[in-house]
Design goal:
The chain is of the alpha/beta class. The protein has 8 helices and 19 strands. Helix 2 crosses helix 5. The structure holds flavin-adenine dinucleotide (FAD).
Length: 405
């Protein structure tokens, strides 16, 4: 499907984070002419994210619909990575290493036991291990580990390398990358027809996909009744490095609830060790705080005491695009010509393959594939839900106990 004028792209994607880029790449592969506008394509939350593909360990009560989409995206990951690495000529650091979730005290153990029961009721594969069995798998764990869950299906990818590969794949597929902000959506009659760009130009397109991450609700010109109920949820992350002679420090992702707070350690093949993450509702603030770094190091040290020997190479904060129900907004809005691909919250890296597939199919066929229908933006369009969803920045620093990635 292609618009009639050879000068007008079929699709304009506003936002070149991993979600906008995968949408653009997949749409271009379908033969559509695609432009992306973003001052720094390949930036965004992927520069901070840990890259856990944690469909099973990230299961939460009440998120069963999202679980289905998460599992489907995890299933698509190996083929997606192979295709992307081929298309870009770059590696993305996909490791099928599995995850170990452990408990350090009786309360944390009870919490993990509940998660295990929920996983089993949901038909998911995970195995309960004693503390000794956990340490046999990961000898660097603290002697106090009381037990844990072995989840062999939760893997990882390096989000920075994923983003870089998507930029190259887009360029090679002929996507027009405009390195500038979209300032305003253009609506003509009852239809979205393009965007006014910060460089002074205006770009028309057959369809517009808004993939602006936590900024998605801020694009001017989007009619008030086409609410984009996305808010920023700050996460601070540390990067350490494991010196070569000691590698491998950990062989899989290790995560825990320490005194009720979530912490994870994600070991990359190149020796990088990512420790994350706080979860704070502070608007668009991305300051790294002493308190955030302290809490992460304190909890990670309790879990794996040897980390204090490792060089600390980076501290950084990023913004998860949170939606009112923690699930993404995918597909058509009530404004013809405007689609959303946003609100991926703590699972955006995991959901990258399936998002690209469903958005490309929607753009080509005009129909949202069955697997994505529950995530249609229309679920927030009743006036009551809109009132609940409207974002008021909450000026308090908090680590939300049930949200860990
Ligand atoms: C600390 C942390 C840890 C995480 N860990 C994981 C994890 O382990 N596993 C996982 O699956 N996910 C994880 N995530 C979540 C994941 O990183 C995000 O869900 C995902 O990166 C969101 O991608 P996006 O492209 O939708 O948004 P973003 O990455 O925010 O990108 C949006 C882009 O749009 C651009 N943009 C916005 N508005 C405009 C405009 N008007 N004009 C032009 N450009 C615009 C921005 O410049 C930006 O580049 C984590 C996130 C954080 C912060």
């Amino acid at each position: 499907m292609s618009s009639h004028s050879p000068h007008i792209p079929d699709v304009l994607v506003v936002g070149g984070g991993i979600i906008g880029l995968v949408t653009a790449w997949r749409a271009a592969q379908q033969g559509l002419r695609v432009a992306v506008t973003d001052p720094a394509p390949g930036g965004g939350a992927a520069q901070v994210a840990a890259g856990m593909l944690a469909a099973v360990t990230e299961l939460h009560y009440g998120e069963h619909t999202l679980l289905g989409l998460n599992l489907e995206s995890a299933r698509r990951y190996p083929a997606f990575v192979a295709e992307l690495e081929e298309a870009s000529g770059q590696q993305v650091g996909y490791r099928s290493c599995g995850t170990l979730a452990v408990a350090l005290d009786a309360d944390d153990r009870a919490h993990l036991r509940e998660l295990h029961a929920l996983q089993r009721r949901s038909g998911l594969e995970s195995e309960w291990l004693s503390g000794r069995e956990c340490r046999r798998l990961e000898p660097m764990l603290a002697p106090g580990v009381r037990g844990g869950l072995r989840v062999d299906g939760d893997h990882q990818v390096d989000p920075r390398r994923l983003a870089a590969a998507l930029v190259v794949a887009c360029e090679r597929a002929g996507v027009d990358l405009r390195r500038t902000w979209a300032e305003r959506l253009v609506v003509e009659g009852d239809r979205a027809t393009g965007a006014v760009l910060a460089d002074g130009g205006e770009l028309s397109a057959g369809q517009v996909v808004l993939a602006g991450g936590s900024l998605s609700g801020r694009l001017e010109g989007v009619p008030a009744d086409v609410l984009v109920p996305v808010r920023p949820v700050k996460g601070q992350v540390l990067r350490l490095t494991v010196p070569r002679p000691y590698a491998p420090f950990l062989s899989r992702t290790v995560r825990a609830v320490v005194r009720g707070s979530h912490v994870y350690l994600v070991p990359r093949e190149d020796g990088e060790l990512v420790v994350g993450a706080t979860s704070e509702e502070l608007g668009w603030d991305t300051t790294v705080t002493a308190g955030g770094v302290y809490e992460l190091l304190r909890d990670a040290h309790e879990l794996v005491p040897g980390i204090t020997e490792l060089p600390l190479v980076e501290t950084r904060a990023g913004l998860r695009p949170g939606s009112p129900d923690n699930a993404p907004l995918l597909g058509f809005t009530e404004l013809p010509g405007l689609l959303l691909a946003t609100g991926h919250y703590r699972n955006g890296v995991l959901l990258t393959p399936v998002t690209g597939d469903v958005l490309a199919e929607a753009l080509v066929s005009g129909e949202l594939p069955e697997i994505a229908r529950a995530f249609s933006p229309g679920r927030f369009s009743s006036p009551m839900v809109q009132r609940v969803a409207s974002y008021e920045p909450v000026l308090r620093e908090t680590r939300l106990q049930e949200q860990s990635v």
